[in-house]
Every structure is written in C-alpha cells, then in structure tokens.
Batch of 3 targets.
Target 1
Amino acid sequence: MWPELFRIGSFVISPYGFLVAAAFVAGIWVAARLGARYEKMDSRIFWDFGLAVVLVALVGAKVLMVFTDPFYYENPANIFSLDFLRSAGVYYGGLIAALVWAAWYFHHHRLPGWRIADAFAPGIAVGHFFGRLGCFTAGCCHGRPAGGAIAVTFTDPGCMVEPDYLGVPLYPTQLIESLGNLLIFGFLLWLYRRKRFNGQIILIYLGLYSIFRFGVEFLRGDLRGWILPGYVSTSQFIASLLLFGAAAAYWRRARRPADPTV
C-alpha cells in the first residue's frame, strides 16, 4: 500500500485519489481529441458531457457497491463515512449508470450519440488503466492466493486487502486489469481509423472488456458480491449481459445503412 503521495497543508493526497482523478481527466481528454479529429465535432461537447457523466458514474458506482459489498449490509452507517465518499465504487455500476444517462442526454440535446460514444470508448479504456493502478496502490480489488513470481503481497494493515490475505501472495488482478485495459485502448485507437459504422467502437469496447473482465473475476479474492456464491460473481453476470447486448447491437447496426447524424 502507498498511503500518501503528497500533502497540501494538512490535506493528504493519496495515490489512489490522484490516479482516479487522472483517470477521469485522461478519459475525457482522449475522447475530446478523437471527437475533434475523427468526428469533426467541437471538443467542448465532449468536455461538457464528460464532466457531467463522471458525476453520474460515481453515483452509480457507489450504489452498486452498497448492494454488492457485505460490509455495508453489516455496517450501514458507513455509507455516510469519509471512506465511502473517497472510494470510487464498483466499475460496472458506474458504467451502467453512465450508459443510461448518456442515452437520455444525447436524445434530450439531439446529439449524435453513437459518434460521441465511439470517441469515449478509448477514453474509458485508458481511464480504467489509470483507475486500476489506483486500486493497486490502495489494495482494493485484489486477487486470490497465488504462487510464483507473478504474485504480490500486501502487508500494511491500513490497506483494503481482506485481513486474512495480509502477508499472503496474491494474484495482481489490479495490474492484470490495468494492462488489459491499456491493450484494449491501443486496439480501439487502431480500429478507429478503420471504423465502418457509428457505434462500432463503443460496442467493440463493451464486448472486449466484458470477455476480459469475466476471466479476471476468476482470479479475484475480494468480497464483491455473488449471483451464484462461489461460481458467478455480480460482475460476471453483468459482463455476460453486456456482452450479449453489445453483440446484438453490433449485428443490428452493422446491417443498417450508414447514418452520419447518429
């Protein structure tokens, strides 16, 4: 665990908080650049939407965290704690909230939603790359016990690793997911210049990340909620739904005539 990056007076800046903030800024910046370059749209559209959707995503992430983390069932008062406010929450809760709100936002403001979503897809991936590095510095989202050179060990009692796993070599699931998101980011940048229809990039992202996340879940060792205890986690269930939904939408949009207005 790396508890402190620097201080401003008595205010402590943690690596986790810094990297999560960097994730949001980097994600919006990438989206704005891609939107201006490939979609020929004003970058301010992406900054306005991006800053708003960050707030929606944070709320959604925390809501799903409350429903999936047994700690909050046993200690409901901690929902109002400073630690709860500092946490980024559950990624899929934020993603789902962002997707739902984005659909409303694009319709309400008559914006080309699929084109904007395409520009944000690589931004989401690179943002998630930074976010998982933040998880590693805090010890959350950790893996189950592992052996060999790949394993990492957390020893600081102040980190977010389950107490039984302190001092135990674990799979570095945070770093694995960070690397996976970086690879997805690179692939999406390559694909963007070869895009065949609006919506292709965001749908490819949803499909790739869902497959990747489903696999990483088998290596996780933290308490994160189950659909079938010990077999199917909440994130694996959501990943399955998103994968099939993205595949169906991809098949449908790939068959439709190109429409530059959506």
Target 2
Amino acid sequence: MNTNPKIYGRKCEIREITNKDIVYEFLDKNHIQGRTGFTIALGAYCQNNLVGVMTFKKEKEGYWDLNRFATDINHQCVGIGGKLFKYFTRNYPFIEIKSFADRRWTTDPTNNLYTKLGFEFDSYVPPTYWYHNPKINPYIRFHKFGFRKQHLHKQYGLPLTMTEREMTTALGYTRIWDCGLIKYVYE
C-alpha cells in the first residue's frame, strides 16, 4: 500500500521551466532514465513546489517528441500527466506528438498513461542495449549513442583497434538489454 501523500493535478499550476538545471535535477532524482535534451519543459507546481515535469523536443516544425514525464517520487501524483499534456496541446502548435514507452514498465499497450492522454499505438520497437555503471550512478542507464568508438577514442584516448564493447568494459560499463519500446502517436 502506497502511504505517500497525494497531490492532485487540479490543485497544480502549470508553468514553463526555462532553467535547464531545475529540469535536470528533477529528472535525475525522479525518472529512471534521468535527464534528457528538450526544447520545452513544463512543470506542475503545488504550493510553489515542483511536483511534476514533462519535456518535449521539437523534431521539425509541428512535430514533437514527448521525451520525459516524471512526478515527485515522494508523492502519489494524480492527474498531473494529463494536466501537463493538455497545457502543451493548448499552447504549442503541433501536427504530431510521438512518444515511446519502455516495454518493461508498460505491460498493457492499450491501457496506460499514453492511451489515457489520447495517444494511439503505432508500433513496437525491437530491444536494444544500454550501458550501466554502478560507480557513476546505480540507478541510471546510459544510451549507447554516447559510447560510440570515435567518441570514446576522443574522450578517453582509447585505441580504435578496440571494439566498442572492449572500450566500455575497460571504462567499467556493463552492457544491458531492454525489452524494446512501444511507439505512440498523438495527432
């Protein structure tokens, strides 16, 4: 039974957050994947305390990616996702908004936050690998894009004769696989 206090979206004020450090700190603390790049960040505030963040990245004119949503892990936050999303759709022009759900946490592709917000199932994305280093952060997975051979060679001076896997192992990272994603689209 969850005994954390409840916060309701109807009691929250939605504001655009322009300070990236506030967004990054909140996501690092409250989202399993931590921070990400974004174009727009919206915050839900209850009694002037930040209790929810939803970020969007503009891909091209009218096309957006809802790439993070997190609420304060110390509260049961009810209706905050809907309120943040509604604010975005009413205040920012869009043709399409896409988002991806991790299949490890989204067990029912037809009944979840995305479908409640009005998103439609688009497709399944196959599993891929990430990196993990418990010495850096035991709770965060790092996207493989940051571990390309050229990048690791340039940043750490590792020889290009090594494979990506050899390089990451030498740096203390372990490769872990996800279960794939579910792509959703909102038009």
Target 3
Amino acid sequence: MNYTWVENLPEFWLLPWRTGIGESDLMPKDIAARLTTAKSQLLATGDAQRLEISFPDKKNPRWYEFFIDSDKDESGETIGIVTTAVEISELKHREQVLKILLREVSHRSKNLLAIIQSIAMQTARFSGSVDQFLQKFRGRLYSLSNSQDLVTDSNWHGAAFRELLHSQLEKYIHPKDPRLTITGKDVYLFPGAALHVGLAFHELIVNSASYGALACENGSLTISAELEPDGEGEMDLIIHWKETSPATENDLSGRPPDILATENHMHDEVSDLKIKSYETSRFGSAVLLRIVPQAVSGTACYRIEDKSVEYYLRIPHRNFDF
C-alpha cells in the first residue's frame, strides 16, 4: 500500500513527501509493519483501527495516535484508506508524571500507615484502659494529621521548622504568649523528618501542658533550632527544648518515671546525665528517645528535674535543607 496524498508530515519522519512512497519510506520498519497490519485488518473487517505509536527522538520519544478508516465512494465501496496522525506527546508526558505521582503517593501512604500502626500498638501497650488509649491515640493521630497537612500543602517537599512547631503548639499556647520563646534557624524539614519531629513536639507539648511550663502561668518554654558541624564537613540540626516551671516534686509525680534517659551525649553539659533503660518506658519517652531519633538516623537526650525539662535532638543534614 502506497500513499497518494500526505499533508503536514512531521519534520522528523524519514523522507520528505512524494507520490507513491510506502510506510517503510516514512518511518522505521517496526512502526511501518504495525501500520500495515492495522490497515490490512481494516480492509478485512471494515472496522476502523486506532493505534498509539512512539517514535524515537533525540531527547524524548514523540507519541502519535493514528486513526485509520476507509475512504468510500458514493456507492459505499472502499476506494482507499484515510490515516490521520495526531501528536499526543504532551498527553503521554502528563500520564507518565501522573503515574510517578501515584506511585509516590502509594509509597508515602504505606509509610504513613506503618507509622499509624506503630503509634496504635505502642499506645495500646502503655494504656491502662480503652478510654485512656482512645484519648492518647486521638491526640497523636491529630498531631500526625497536622504535620501531614503541611507536607501535602508543600507538594510533598516537607515543612518549615517553625510552621511545624506552631501547628503542634496552637491548641495549647498563643504564638505571642510571653512564656514562649522560639529562636534559631527556620530550616526546611523533609517529609519523613517533619512527621516524626511533629510527633516529638506533640509528646513534649502534652507533657508540658499536663505537668510543666504550659500548665502554669509563670512557666517558660524556649525552643531553638541551631546548626552544628557533624565533623565530616556537613551541618546537623540541633533542636533544643527547655522548659522551666515553679513545680515541686509532688507536682511532678504524674510525669512518666523514665524521662531521665539518653542514647548519645550530644553536649558536654549533659554528659553527666544518669542513664536509664527505656525498655520499660512509656510511649512518650519511647517516641523521644528511640522512635524519632531512629527515623532520622539521629540521636536524642531527654532529662527532667524538679523544675525543668530539657530535650535535645540531633538531626543529620540529609533530613533537612536551609
């Protein structure tokens, strides 16, 4: 089968148009064979054919959709074949981007479900009743939801440190409350780090609102984010939470009994802390000392005294940008 008329031939096809040329003169042999087969099927069955074909190009493949139908005379006899090719490269590119995004959403959803499952299991482990479990689990799920909203709003890029912190604090203290001081770098945490740091803030905030600085009028809470060399030419992020309150030992009796624990000493001033295994700790301390540090491949230190609470979290550079 040869062509008798062609219009708007793409410039990258093999030969310029001339009367009598065939499929293999215009395009690669494998593509020509597909079109020839489709046209033969049209002649045999009378059914119009439709194909999507990719043409190799220097940068990206060029996609065309071919519509192949009969050209009939007034009596209904087939006198030829009409082939129309419409470029759909942009459509194919969007489809490919969408597939990539859907795979990414699926991957992130599985990660998020794994986090939720872990929270549910550990919360149940350290809850004395169903009501206690529901109360704690809802709070942690709400915290995770707030962080996830920030990550989603950023097109899955992550969340700014201060925005993440304020999203966790908003239910407990106004940003301009004189008890609250936030200093240091407003780094951009990548998605995984943002979700886990948000959980750490939630545990610290709930504890503070129950027993510490946020539970009294004259308490103080200072949160800082500073960069510190990691010894290998990169900068780590050091998050430091420090709260003070006029509480007495009796006031602190409701706190988790295990909070004096650490994995690695990050600062000389806390190197003399007593070490206590967190294997028997409550979930809040497990989040701060094990779950969050492991998630960001970092280290953490958490201590409580009669009138103060301090928490350090070191986050390696691959978890954030600044």
